[in-house]
Amino acid sequence: MSRRFRVMIAQSADGLIADAAGGVEWLDRYQEANDHGYGAFIREIDTIVMGRATYEVARHFGAWPYPDQQCLVLSARPLDDPPPRVARTALDVPALGAALREGEGDVWVLGGGRTIRGFLDAGLIDLLELFVVPEILGAGVPLFPPGHAAFSLSFKGALAFPTGIVRLTYQRN
Amino acid sequence: MSRRFRVMIAQSADGLIADAAGGVEWLDRYQEANDHGYGAFIREIDTIVMGRATYEVARHFGAWPYPDQQCLVLSARPLDDPPPRVARTALDVPALGAALREGEGDVWVLGGGRTIRGFLDAGLIDLLELFVVPEILGAGVPLFPPGHAAFSLSFKGALAFPTGIVRLTYQRN
Q: Is B132's Cβ below 8 Å from some Cβ in A?
């Protein structure tokens, strides 16, 4: 099996990825209760791609959360004292996608929304895993900045976890 | 079993209920392919509640689509030549909910977003059926106007249809 480019998103039942303050604390109690397949998922990942803002948040969380993966940060500016196996790339998304296409182990396009959307728009995402969390946030941050093109997905499967989170798996058409 | 208040929503995988122009034509090919349980659903419904704007859209679609249900339109203004079994109510949501609580057959709180949100905020929704459609719209209309309180749901089940639409069923906590 060739390497796959994957996106994993957790969103509320009303389609939001963060609350009105940009926070994701509403996810904490779910993550404490169950790993929702994350352990199995991360073992399939060789390389993680993320935008600069996502990197800066992850960098200041405490211990670097992805020690076992090669991480690439999309940024025009050099990284200040990055963790091991973290590098910056100045490539644009299509060029980065082409450079990463050959290789072993999957690529996780982590975020943020603009990075994910860039890979989707470039037709580079093979697998989209959408975790629908049983919460109505009422107000907050949608996954994508508005104004992008629409496209269809192919549904591949649904898996319900004991927490009430449902994972919906799609391929891009 | 006592009567239930139900909400049924179709939204894209990116959490939108209408495209950027407010249209729902992107749902047409799904509805033509499969009824997604609508026939069974509507037979359980005795009464439909809707807001004025939703009523006006349904009224001008052609034949009135809900001939077998009692329909109540939340509006301060009289209805002009309503179909049979359609009446206006000037009650607010809590009073209407109390008036409808006793009775046979379920109540469908059809929409729009403000009406649904009013019933949710009043704690009157027993069952929320969320149909996740395998489409990324990229831009469009979220279910709820922002600025409402958050709450948790209890997940009750997932059902995948051959079209790739997945129905997620929740109870309000």
A: yes
